[in-house]
Amino acid sequence: MKLRTILFFTLIVFLAAPQKSSGQIWKKLFGKEEKRKPRPRPKPAIKPKDKQAGEIATKKKRKTLEYPASKIKSRYRIDVLVPLYLDELVKDNKLSFKDKIPEKAAIGVSFYEGIKLAADTLTAMGYNVDVFIHDVTQQGLTPNELVKGEVLEETDLVIGALQSAQIPVVAEFAKKRQVNFISVISPSDANVKDNLFFTMLQPTLETHCERIREAALKKTSGKKTILFYRTNDNVDSLAYSYILSEGEKPFTKVLLNKLLQKKQLEQSFDSASTNFIVMPIVDNGYAESILQQLHEWFPRYQFEVFGMPSWKFINTLRKPDAYPNVAVNFTSPFHYDITTTMAQTLSANYKKQFGGRMAEMVFRGYDVVFWYAYLLQNYGTVYNTKQSDNKVAPFIKFEIKPQWDIQQNLLYNENEHLFLYRYQSASFLVNSLD
Questions:
Q1: Can you give the pLDDT at residue 60?
Q2: Cα separation of 177 and 43, whole Å?
Q3: Distance separating alpha carbons of residues 112 and 362, to the nearest angstrom
Q4: What predicted TM-score, i.e. pTM, was given to this entire model?
Q5: d(Cα 198, Cα 217) in Å, to the nearest integer?
Q6: Residues 365 and 114: beta-carbon distance below 8 Å
Q7: Three-class secondary structure of residue 183 per DSSP
Q8: Strand partners, 420
């Protein structure tokens, strides 16, 4: 039995009840959670004919955010809500799987491993922070049951790897108790509004589309930019509307509700220069088929394509012979440079405790718990006005900003820090979008 499996069994025993610890994914998420109207935002300019209405609209100013006094404590408590599926993975005190942890539990287990490593680091550094793990798939420990009971009564911070439907009840609890709730997995706001204490680390699809549009238009510098879009898929149609939130003028639009013929596409391209394409298609399979067609039909043309965050999971991007004449760009809130000293140290500690190679969720668990423990330790329970202090964040310098509706009412807080990935011929570059 592998070391990681042995340690996982130890984890199962350890988490039989809440215990103290010292110290095509995007498509599925967006498809199930983002079926909502686009978040209305103020337009950048007022047309002359709309001046009167615009003046009325702009009279209402954003509320001043008023936080309660922060509580400075001798010791802080962080509660982490994570799906581990322990009841399914252990039957009669025996593991119900062989070697490999089932896929649906793998994300939660990897996230836990990162949290455990962070807790160990915090203990070694003398932090006065306790981390409690709750398997929200267990009877009695669902988010609804946790907030109704006494388990979270003493919490100073809740971190949740939760799905959209589980978010509102925890967000409401956080608002009433005036403790922060950090949503780390879901890109859905779950229709939460007017909540100073709810923060999304995974930006919404709308935010991704706004930033990819900005990056694309900055790169093209006024050159012809083609917009491939489709309206017969709910999520892709929503992404298309977000891309056009600031207007249609920069784009030459091409509808792709069904795959076009080569002659229909050829008239949109230029063989003598780079062809810039913005493609708000979240469906990886459909997007991949279009990329393949661009390469096969136009091998002597050069393309620069700007796509969706889901494209991070298109495996052919990592193959050297896959459409070498097509450069592919997409946004992601996460990037972990495994060559850094910190990453190498974390990797060594991971091998010692769990064995094997770290998944991205290990990095994310470590990153989130370490940074928020730092904020608690240095600024108390209501650290919200100090979140620009991200210098000690191990890997991601999160940029947490309040979000507002068109009437300037507060919605929630959202991480706006994104990276731009650029793949071509299996090699890639990553740049931070400031």
A1: 67
A2: 35
A3: 7
A4: 0.85
A5: 32
A6: yes
A7: strand
A8: 331, 431
- Six token digits for residue 208: 């991704």
d(CA 243, CA 33): 19
Mind listing the pLDDT tens digit for each residue in 58-79? 456 788 899 999 999 999 999 9
Give the N- to C-terminal CA distance of the chain in Å, as an integer.
46
What would the two tokens of residue 200 be?
A: 């999304």
For the segment 184-204, what is each residue's pLDDT rounded down to a tens digit? 999 999 999 999 999 999 999
pLDDT digits (tens, 9 = 90+) for 88-134: 888 777 777 777 788 889 999 999 999 999 999 999 999 999 999 99
Residue 10 confidence (pLDDT) = 43
Amino acid symbol at 89: L
* Euclidean distance between CA atoms 271 and 297, whole angstroms: 12
Q: pLDDT, tens digit, for every residue of 286-306?
A: 999 999 999 999 999 999 999
β-bridge pairing 225-229 and 198-200? unpaired
Integer CA distances (angstroms), 372 to 70, 271, 279, 306, in order: 14, 51, 36, 33
Q: Which amino acid is at 349?
A: N
Nearest CA-CA partner of 151 in 133, 164, 127, 137: 133
Provide the 10 A C-beta neighbour count for residue 269. Answer: 18
The CA–CA distances, whole Å, from 377 to 41, 151, 156, 267 equal 35, 22, 11, 60
How big is the chain, counted in residues?
434
Q: Where are the beta strands (DSSP E) in 333-417?
A: 400-404, 410-415
